[in-house]
Specification:
- There is one protein chain.
- A hairpin with a 2-residue loop joins strand 7 and strand 8 (190-196).
- With 298 residues, the protein is α+β, with helices and mostly antiparallel strands.
- The chain has helices spanning 18-22, 52-55, 74-82, 89-92, 126-134, 139-142, 235-238, 241-263, 269-282, 286-289, and strands spanning 8-11, 14-17, 101-106, 114-122, 146-155, 158-165, 175-187, 190-196, 203-216, 219-230, 293-294.
- It has a single domain, classed as 2-Layer Sandwich (Alpha-D-Glucose-1,6-Bisphosphate, Chain A, domain 4).
Length: 298
């Protein structure tokens, strides 16, 4: 979730960039993700319940063109889907005690092009993790900082969602955008979620992918890849380090929220949000940002 960012603001006695407020979230997170920043959309009034049975029927193949701007990573992600698990994947993974393993991926010639590989083991069945991912209309309860997240429309195994992110600054409107997904659930041991930028505004390009793999009846392996480029405005000059930090922290929080919600169905949404922040505080992202690798060559 990204928007043009051009200043620093003071919130709760701490200087932060607006990028920290509107940076990438779930599926980014994928997490998080089709992004379209726009004001005054009527889509916020047209919520529908996602038909999960229709998602499983694979009306459309996972590799169909999704429209929007093609990035250097669009075909890379399609190749990963067809060659899963990808060759050399283990070399990109980080092995440590962090419950969400991150690897930052840099793009040749564009140091502010965000790329993040995420992986984690979730102590829950694949069905439980799917239920959390598919419960889009309740995302705003576990993803802090959002006014509204819901499904706008669905066509078989494709669905369009509306997101409104709170900006806690006087006279600055909330950020509103859309994310389009296509999923493939035909394999009982592997589920794929793919998403892509729909229209260019401050967001120039965005491609993402989530893959769930069944390890056992009680353990699910979660993989996510997110790539996006944006017009960062004066932030590139004023506080360039905020671009990566705000984005990676937002991705981490969405991932750990998915993990905690999947593993602890009895927890309140408030506890999921609080515990997610505690884990992020324990595992700061600066180290992974300083050790970027490349998936593609110049």
């Amino acid at each position: 979730m990204i928007q043009t960012l051009d200043k620093l603001v003071q919130v709760n006695s701490k200087w932060i960039s607006i990028s920290s407020l509107v940076a990438l979230g779930l599926f980014c997170s994928a997490t998080h993700f089709f992004l379209e920043a726009h004001a005054g959309s009527t889509d916020s009034k047209n919520s529908v319940i996602l038909d999960t049975a229709a998602l499983a029927r694979a009306t459309y193949p996972i590799d169909i063109p999704l429209g929007g701007p093609e990035s250097i990573y669009t075909n890379v992600l399609l190749k990963l889907i067809h060659q899963w698990p990808p060759k050399g994947w283990a070399k990109l993974e980080v092995k440590d005690k962090n419950p969400v393993q991150l690897k930052c991926l840099e793009t040749p010639g564009n140091p502010d092009y965000i790329g993040v590989l995420q992986s984690m083991n979730i102590s829950a069945s694949m069905q439980r993790v799917e239920a959390v991912l598919d419960n889009v209309n309740q995302y705003s309860e576990i993803f802090s900082g959002f006014q509204d997240i819901h499904v706008i429309s669905q066509d078989g195994n494709q669905f369009l969602t509306f997101w409104e992110q709170n900006i806690p600054l006087f006279l600055i409107p909330n950020i509103k955008y859309k994310i389009q997904y296509i999923v493939n659930k035909t394999n009982p041991d592997k589920k794929i979620y793919r998403y892509k930028l729909k229209e260019v505004s401050q967001i120039k390009e965005s491609d993402g992918l989530i893959v769930l793999e069944r390890v056992s009846n009680e353990i699910t392996r979660y993989f996510e890849l997110d790539f996006y480029d944006a017009d960062w405005g004066m932030l590139k000059t004023i506080a360039p380090g905020r671009i990566w930090r705000g984005s990676v922290e937002s991705i981490y929080l969405s991932d750990i929220s998915i993990k905690l919600r999947s593993e602890n169905s009895e927890w309140s949404t408030k506890k999921v949000v609080e515990e997610s922040q505690k884990i992020l505080d324990h595992y700061p992202v600066e180290a992974v940002i300083s050790n970027k690798v490349r998936m593609i060559r110049e």
